[in-house]
Amino acid sequence: MESMEAKTIFGQNVRRLRRARGFSQEELADRVGLHRTYIGSVERGERNISLNNIVAIARSLSVPISDLFIGIETTKEE
User: Fold this and answer.
1) Which of 15, 33, 60, 72 is an S-S bond match for 43, by CB 3.0 to 4.6 Å?
2) Does any domain span residue 23?
3) Contact 43, 11 (CB under 8 A)
4) In the chain, how long is the greatest CA-to-CA distance?
5) Mean pLDDT lowest for which of 16-25, 48-57, 58-67, 68-77?
6) Rounded to whole angstroms, what are the CA distances from 2 to 5, 9, 53, 71, 78?
7) Side-chain half-sphere CA neighbours of 22 within 13 A
8) What angle (nearest 5°) sits at the alpha carbon of residue 6, between those of residues 5 and 8?
9) Is residue 78, in this structure, part of any structural domain at all?
């Protein structure tokens, strides 16, 4: 079984943390300085997001950057 793509897991983590803080996509986007549709596409795993935007999202959610990567495996299965 193929593991879930990193962008999808990352997006799920952003959504989970955003909802836990009671933010709408629009509110998070305003805090980060991005458009709401961009945040939506990140949460759906459609974007290969830049490091600068990852840092901005983590800061806006008041979480360590590592929280956005929970569940993403870095070892290659053989």
Assistant:
1) 15
2) yes
3) yes
4) 42
5) 68-77
6) 9, 13, 27, 14, 12
7) 0
8) 70
9) no
The CATH number linked to 32 is 1.10.260.40
- Distance, CA of 75 to CA of 78 (rounded, Å): 9
Pair 63, 8: CB distance under 8 Å? no
Number of domains composing the chain: 1
On whether residue 1 sits in a domain, the answer given is no
Residue 76 lies in a domain: no
CA distance 10 to 74: 13
pTM for the full model? 0.90
C-beta of residue 45 within 8 angstroms of C-beta of residue 11: yes
Return the amino acid letter for 51: L
| pLDDT tens per residue across span 18-42 | 999 999 999 999 999 999 999 999 9
Q: Domain range holding 40?
A: 6-68
